[in-house]
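Example 3.2
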Amino acid sequence: MQSAKSIKETLKTSSQAVATDKVSSQPPLSRGKSLWQIKELRVRERELQKRNATLVQARDALKAANLALEAFNYTVAHDLRQYLTAINGCCQVLRELHSEDFLKSSQNYLEEIYQGTLAMDRLIDTLLEFSVVENVDLCRQTIDLSAIVKFLVTNPIRTIDEYRGVFHIAPGILVDADPNLLQIVLNNLIGNACKYAGNLESTVIEFGLTFVDGKRACFVRDNGPGFDMALADRLFLPFQRLRGTVAKGHGIGLATVKRIITRHGGRVWAESQIGKGATFYFTLGE
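Structure, written as tokens:
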């Protein structure tokens, strides 16, 4: 005969076996279905996150486009009309001049007309360049930025041809980028330095390469008057000019630079101190 203790242990073992059988007898389909539902929810969650990110990007792009359109409308209404008004006024004066006064005064008025049409033509070119760089196809290849800079400073272009300072160009800076778009970038950055650094023999503009946070960054540096860093966030907005600057410009060059650099997956920024020059850096997402 079994003892009470033995019977008790037998009953305990039997009950555990029954419990185990109950658990194992649960249809595996219900647990598998739960796992499938969890996986499906996670997939849908990731899809929603992607869609939300896309919507945020679209919203930001639309906001930027609206800001650019607003500034563009202001430029068309103000800058272009300013040149047209000058041309119109000069023409009216020429029409009203007496014949004996015409020969004496006409040259000055004609020169005003000529300069006005040139300025308007340059502004239109700048606006077209600003709009085109957003949609043109990228053609990335290995290019020598040092060679492009040398070409720019030895060929007459708008703001560099009258520059009397010194250029220091680091040799052999190779990058993977679109050559035509990078020429626009360097033309704008160097031209901007020539305008704002001052047309003096003591002015030095430098193009080189450094490392920022472990990544290669090209730079254009000048020893000009610099600017207040509190205004740095406005530098790359379209049609914006820094207060207190006397250099002529349309406020589109640096905005064009930012568009091109962003399309290359890089970033552009500026550092400066008043009286100690300015440095513009850019990366290319390499």
